[in-house]
Write a structure and sequence with these properties.
By secondary structure, the chain is α/β, with parallel strands linked by helices. It is built from 16 helices and 13 strands.
Length: 465
């Protein structure tokens, strides 16, 4: 009897382990398919210099990447001041104003993520006119709004697939309502199998016909877009438009932007562009999701090499693409190894529980930091031309420190500024401003659309109420 019970217990344990491993393998397969759903599109190279730093690095290649400009780049670098009661002088920092790259549609770092990705989708649509396109995210996602908005401008109709509805915070609600106002051809939530099922069909059953923009736009073409951002900043530093930077502060969701910035910085250093010269230069990365932050505190999640979509996985596949298509000679420069070393030595993850709080909303610390936006002003910038725009009637807006994304890394930056002021230390610290300064509103009545959607989803109904 004892042997039988022991056998049953052992069998149950083995079965449970087998199921857990199967679930993990399924998740890794899903993440891998999402990452590779959209691949860069190649086209014969022209010898004309472009405004795209990445493309200008490879003038001798016979092929180049399909690209959609979408917005106005390079994005400006601004110097900002914060007046505080506890400091005799104002606190100063720099911001890479990705939020100002468009004044008409939508801005922010997701525009870079889409420049190669939408070009690839457009080329795919020409080949497969009946292809369906989806974008995956949460209801507060900047990526979903940007993809639907810019997709429509190119004749690409994206269906929005929301894995979760974020807490009804102002910033999340604005993005969700913006999306509905743009009148996407479909909005699906994963509180029913229909939403999840469409993504599974696109990834596994459509034979590659249907495409999915991954969460955060994280993919090879998405990362290539963020490499442009790093190279663009390197050029601004090398030309003397802005001083060299000692640290960049940014939020980390899918890790697409982080992966691209690391690869771009490593490329800039390899090419001896006179930027990022401080040997102690670092990126300070703040995970915005409480689950990912907790996993990083316990297991070093963002430095894991086996999970699709995380930086090391991105280093491998972006480098492989560049090597296989003749953009980089792996015998001359091992970009993947350089990026992995940078991640280990020059990236500081700040995943404190009291800072990250809950995904999609302010923590107490980030809310405190965000209140300083009323004491903040732009005092100089690379786009100030002959006269200082700060003296104009309409100076540039200060960054939008949203609770979902930007306020959390800004909180860490602000604490560093306070410590530096108390110690008399001078550093050039930069906030990578990812949140758009404008909120799009399309032709559809967003409230009516939300009411109609609430009839199909209990989750939406709770938000609308």
């Amino acid at each position: 009897m004892g042997i039988s019970l022991a056998f049953i217990a052992a069998s149950g344990f083995i079965a449970a382990c087998t199921l857990a491993l199967a679930a993990l393998a399924s998740l890794m397969l899903l993440l891998s398919r999402l990452y590779h759903s959209i691949r860069p599109a190649l086209t014969p190279a022209s010898r004309t210099k472009t405004s795209v730093p990445l493309l200008n690095l490879f003038p001798s290649t016979t092929r180049t990447l399909e690209f959609q400009s979408l917005a106005s780049f390079p994005s400006a670098v601004h110097k900002l001041q914060i007046e505080t009661n506890g400091s005799e002088s104002s606190l100063e920092f720099f911001a890479k104003r990705e939020d100002l790259c468009s004044s008409t549609l939508y801005a922010g770092n997701k525009i870079r993520t889409l420049q190669f990705q939408l070009a690839a989708c457009k080329a795919h649509q020409e080949r497969y006119p009946d292809a369906k396109f989806y974008v995956l995210g949460s209801a507060g996602s900047n990526q979903v709004v940007a993809t639907v908005a810019y997709g429509k401008s190119l004749g690409l109709e994206f269906q929005a697939s929301y894995a979760v509805l974020d807490p009804p915070d102002l910033d999340n609600s604005l993005n969700f309502l913006s999306l509905l106002s743009l009148e996407p051809v479909g909005v699906y939530l994963w509180d029913s199998f229909d939403g999840f099922g469409k993504i599974l069909h696109a990834l596994f059953l459509s034979g590659g016909r249907d495409k999915v923009v991954n969460m955060g736009g994280n993919s090879v073409p998405g990362v290539l877009g963020q490499i442009n951002g790093a190279l663009e900043l390197a050029d601004q530093i090398a030309s003397g438009e802005t001083p060299d930077i000692d640290a960049i502060y940014l939020p980390v969701g899918s890790s697409c932007t982080l992966t691209g910035l690391i690869l771009g910085i490593c490329l800039a250093r390899h090419l001896n562009i006179q930027a990022f010269k401080n040997p102690r230069f670092k990126i300070v990365a703040v995970p915005i999701h409480h689950t990912f932050a907790g996993l990083h505190r316990s297991y070093g999640l963002f430095q894991a090499s086996w999970i699709p979509t995380l930086p090391i996985y991105g280093f491998k596949h972006v480098t492989r693409f560049l090597n296989e298509n003749g953009f980089i000679d792996s015998g001359v420069f091992d970009l993947e190894s350089a990026a992995a070393a940078f991640l280990k030595e020059n990236v500081e993850f700040v995943a404190d529980e009291d800072l990250v709080g809950q995904y999609g909303v302010h923590s107490v610390k980030s809310l405190r930091a965000a209140t300083y936006d009323i004491k903040m002003k732009v005092v100089d910038g690379t786009d100030f031309k002959n006269e200082r725009r700060a003296k104009d009637e309409n100076p540039p807006p200060v960054p939008w420190l949203c609770g979902h994304f930007l306020a959390k890394p800004f909180s860490v930056l602000f604490e560093r500024l306070e410590r530096n002021a108390a110690s008399g230390i001078k550093e050039n610290l930069m906030l990578w401003q990812t949140k758009s300064s404008i909120q799009p509103r399309g032709p559809c009545d967003e409230w009516e659309a939300a009411q109609n959607l609430s009839k199909k989803s209990a989750h939406v109904s709770k938000v609308v109420e």
